[in-house]
From TrEMBL, chain A:
Pfam families membership: DGC (PF08859)
InterPro entries per UniProt: DGC (IPR014958)
Protein name, UniProt field: Zinc-binding protein
Domain of life: Archaea
Automatic annotation (TrEMBL), chain B:
Cysteine disulfide partners in this protein: C10-C13
Single GO MF annotation: isomerase activity
Protein task: Does not function as a glutathione-disulfide oxidoreductase in the presence of glutathione and glutathione reductase. Has low thioredoxin activity in vitro.
Organism: Methanococcoides methylutens MM1
Segments forming domain Thioredoxin-like fold: 1-76
Family assignment from sequence similarity: Belongs to the glutaredoxin family.
Keyword entries, A-Z: Disulfide bond, Electron transport, Isomerase, Redox-active center, Transport
Keyword Disulfide bond applies: yes
A Pfam family reported for this protein in Swiss-Prot or TrEMBL: Thioredoxin_3
Positions of the catalytic residues: C10, C13
Protein name: Thioredoxin
Length: 126, 77
């Protein structure tokens, strides 16, 4: 995939961070960030790298025009991680607010992802 | 001092290189300026958006063109 990338300057300058946590909603938030990246809504970036204070990842987040944080549950780990690093969030998506109950299932169902993608696309369009 | 300009050759990346060269020449800084176009090397720095600027291994900026003053500050501090 990397070979296809000619220049990252032309890409949409929107960062997508997801919680990727150990639950159904954590994994759904990760999958959602992937789907939104593939749809060209933004570029998925590494939230854990922000927590780890990795300079390149921090500078990349700072260099984006908009930041979208996707959290699985109200613990809001992604939002808090970005805030602790001083990175402003433009939109915050919370999966449990979208009708999905948190559980320990780590296998994301395709139907859940597509339903969620539709809801989130609508939210981001407004 | 090693200065790496990250980006594969578009206008923004070239602009960063131009600014860096100007500051280096005007301030008489002894530096090696390298253009890094290999996306794998750019990702090795954790940089997800270009243009990027790395000074002696330290990522200073990504996704934006820095001002001349900022580059001068980084190179002379």
């Amino acid at each position: 995939m990397a070979d296809e990338i000619k220049c990252a300057c032309d890409s949409t300058n929107v960062a997508l961070f997801s919680c990727s946590g150990a639950s159904n909603v954590g994994q759904l938030s990760n999958q959602l960030a992937i789907e939104l990246t593939e749809k060209g809504v933004g570029k998925m970036m590494c939230a854990v790298g922000i927590g780890g204070q990795v300079p390149g990842l921090l500078r990349s987040a700072e260099g984006c025009d908009r930041v979208i944080a996707i959290d699985g549950c109200p613990l809001n780990c992604t939002k808090k991680t970005l805030e602790l690093a001083g990175i402003g969030i433009d939109r915050h998506i919370l999966i449990t607010d979208l009708g999905i109950k948190k559980n320990k299932d780590l296998r994301v169902k395709g139907s859940e992802t597509s339903d969620l993608l539709e809801k989130v696309s609508d939210i981001l369009a407004n | 001092m090693k200065i790496e300009v990250l980006g594969s050759g578009c206008a923004k990346c070239n602009k960063v290189k131009e600014i860096v060269e100007k500051v280096v020449n005007e301030a008489g800084i002894d530096a090696e300026i390298v253009k890094v176009e290999d996306i794998d090397k750019i990702l090795d720095y954790g940089v997800m958006v270009t243009p990027g600027l790395v000074i002696d291994g330290d990522v200073k900026i990504a996704g934006k063109i820095p001002s001349e003053d900022k580059v001068k500050e980084w190179l002379t501090q």
